[in-house]
Amino acid sequence: MASVASLSASLQQRVSAALAAAVPSAAGADPLLRRSDRADFQANGVLGLAKRQKTNPQALAAQVVEALPGLAAEQSGDDPIAAVEVSGPGFLNITVADAAITRNVAARAADERLGVPLKAHPGITVVDYAQPNVAKEMHVGHLRSSVIGDAIVKILEFGGEQVVRRHHIGDWGTQFGMLVQYLIEHPHELDHTADEADAGEASMSRLDRLYKASGALFKSDEAFKERARRRVVDLQAGDPETVALWQRFVDESKIYFDSVYSKLDIQIRDEDIVGESGYNHMLAETCELLEKSGVAVESDGALCVFFDDIKGKDGEPVPLIVRKSDGGFGYAATDLSAIRNRTGELHADTLLYVVDVRQSLHFKMVFEAARRAGWLTDAVSARHLPFGTLLGKDGKPFKTRAGESVKLEALLDEAVQRATAVVRDKGEKIGLSEEEILTNGVQVGVGAVKYADLSTSLGRDYVFDLDRMVSLNGDTSVYIQYAFARTQSIFRKAAGDQQPAAHPELPLEQAERALGLHLDAFGDTLAEVAEVYEPHRLAAYLYQLASLFTTFYEQCPVLTADGGPAQVENRLLLCELTARTLRQGLALLGIRTPDRL
Ligand code: ARG
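# arginine complex -> structure
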C-alpha cells in the first residue's frame, strides 16, 4: 500500500512555499488553490495577502511566480507545474505538466487503494442506521436511513475509521403486551413451515394480520385490554414465557427485514442489531442518574428534562420525557442509555444518527441532556444526520393511490422491473444471455434507487421518479454503470500485447488531462465526504468522472490511437484507473458495476 500525494496537495505545498519566500511573514498562509476552468488550478490567496501587506497584488503575484521552486530553473523531470500566469487582479493560473498527470495516474494504478491514504488518526464512530420496527412494515424512511447509513459506514471504513454499526430497531414498548397476549390466546397465529419461498413477505403478512387483529380486540374488549396491560408488566419484569413469545415476534420480523435487506443488497449483521430492548437493563439507572444530578426533574408525575430555548406554540416549555407518569420509560430513556453504552463501553468518539429530519428535536434534546449529564463530553461529537422526505410526483409525501405508505419491497420490485426493460433493450443487441439480463436488471434497478437517494444532499426532500432514475442520460447510476461497462468492453477488445502502461513522455489531449486531473481528486473527495458525512459529494464526483470518461472515449480512440503502441498503453492506463475508481466509488455507495451492459 502506497498512498499517493494528490497533485493539488503538492501544488498547494509549492505555492505556499513560494508565498513564504516572497513575503517571509506569510509563512503558513493559505494559497487558496482551486480547480479552475481557465487553467488547471487557480490560486487566489495572493489577493488577501497583498491587502494585509498593503502592496500591489499583481506585483506580489509576480514575485510569487518568481519564487516558485523549480520553475526558474530548468524544468526538472518531475516538476508538476508546467506554467504559471498572473491573471486579473492577482490570481495565479497554474497549468499542470502532462508528465505529472501521467505519473500520478500510474502511481494510483499501482496501488490497490488507488493511492487513497488512510486517516492519520482514526477514531471510533458508532453509526445508528437501518432501524425498522418489529412487527411493522418497513417504509421509505427506513429505506433512506439504510441506504445512507450503509454508504457512510463504507466510506468511513475505507478511510480507516473503526466503525461500530448499530441497528436501533423498535422492538420494545407497550404494543408488545398486546401482541404477546393475543398470541397466547391464539397460539397458532405465527406457525409456519420453515421453507416457504416467499418467507419475507409471508412473515410480514402474518405479523400484520396479528397486529390488526390484536389491535381491534384491544379497542373493543375491555377485559383483553386489561390482560394486555398486565402482559406489558410481565414483559418488563422479564417473565420467561412472555419474553419467549416476544422473541418470536422479533425473530419473525427479522425474517422479513432480511428479505428486504437482501433485495436492497445491504448486509445487516445480527450482532449489530441492538434494538431498544438491548438497553432495557439500563433504563432505571439512567433515570436515577439524571434525577440525582438534577438534570431531570419530576413534573406532573413524569421525569423530564427542560430546556430554556425549547418551547411549544403556546410558549410553554417542551420537556424531554424520560419516564412517563405511568412509570413507563420513553424513547428518550432508551436513546440516553444507548449514549451511555456507546461512549462509556464502546469508547466511541463520534456518534452518528441517520434518522428522519422529523426527529431533529428529539435528538437535539437527547444530546443536550446527555451533555449535562456528562455522558457526552467535549471529546465526543454527536450528530444527527437528518434526511428529508421522499415525495411522489405530485410533490407530496410518497403514498400509494389509496393513501397508504408505499411498501418498500413493492417499490424495489418495480425499480428492478423498469431497469430490466432498459437493460434488455441494449443487452439483446450485445448478446447478453437471459440470465445476465436479469442479474444486471437487479444491479441497475437497486443501484438506481440507491443513487437517487444518495445523490441529493441529505436534508432535501426528493421526488421518487422511476423514469428519471433509470434513464441512461443524466445524473443517474445507470449512466455511471454504462461508463464502467464501456471500460470493460475496451479491455475485452484489447489485443494480448495491448496492456496499460505509463508513458509520461507523451503529450496529453485536453480530454485526457481533464480525466487524469479528476482521477487525482478521488482521495481528496473521499476525505471530504468522510469529514462532512455528505455522500452526495461522492455521487457528484463519480457522475463527473463518468462524464469526463465519456468525452475522452468520444475524442480519444484507445485501441486505435494515432500515436502508436505507446499511446495505446497510456490511454489504457487511464481506462484502467477510471474503471477501478468508478467500481470502488460505486461500491462505497453500495452500488454494483456489471461488466457488460
Ligand atoms: N425505529 C425508529 C423509527 O422507525 C428509528 C430509530 C432511530 N434511532 C434511534 N437511536 N432513535 O422511526
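# post-check
The first strand starts at residue 33 and ends at 35.
The chain has a mean pLDDT of 93.
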